[in-house]
Design goal:
Blueprint: H1 5-22, E1 27-32, E2 37-42, H2 50-64, H3 68-73, E3 98-103, E4 106-114, H4 118-132
Antiparallel strand pairs: 1-2, 1-4, 3-4
Length: 134
């Protein structure tokens, strides 16, 4: 199972709608089950520094099959995953905005959003997850 381009576009469009409601342009990425980029959008005036962050949030959510926010909770000093953010060539993101996309119980990809506050990024990603489930 994987994510089609049409599904990725639906996920991204829902995240864009939420980003517009937030009043914060964002970078939005969707990866497939192998962590490969399926679709990406940089909204007008979104930070170019957030491009890699969005893509890597999506990759991280798929690589570890958990939201990046959850990974961050176990990656602090003294925690069991401390230092994980420097693994995989520094690609691992440990703050919110990356969420796996599931078909049933199977992770088939992930969304990553960057450009707003962590809370805004999470809301956009959640909107994408909800659209994927429809």
């Amino acid at each position: 199972m994987t994510i089609t381009l049409d599904e990725a576009r639906r996920v991204i469009n829902a995240a864009i709608e939420q980003a517009n409601e937030n009043g914060q342009p964002s970078d939005i990425a969707v990866v497939d089950g192998g962590g490969n980029l399926v679709a990406f959008v940089r909204m007008d005036n979104a930070w170019i520094g957030s491009i890699d962050v969005a893509i890597n949030k999506a990759w991280t959510a798929r690589a570890f099959d958990m939201p990046t926010k959850a990974l961050g909770k176990i990656a602090g000093p003294g925690d069991q995953a401390f230092g994980i953010h420097v693994s995989n060539g520094g690609r691992v993101m440990i703050f919110g905005g990356g969420i796996p996309l599931k078909r049933g119980e199977t992770v088939v990809g992930a969304i990553g959003v960057s450009g707003g506050t962590v809370e805004q990024d999470i809301k956009c990603a959640e909107a994408g997850v909800e659209a994927f489930g429809k």
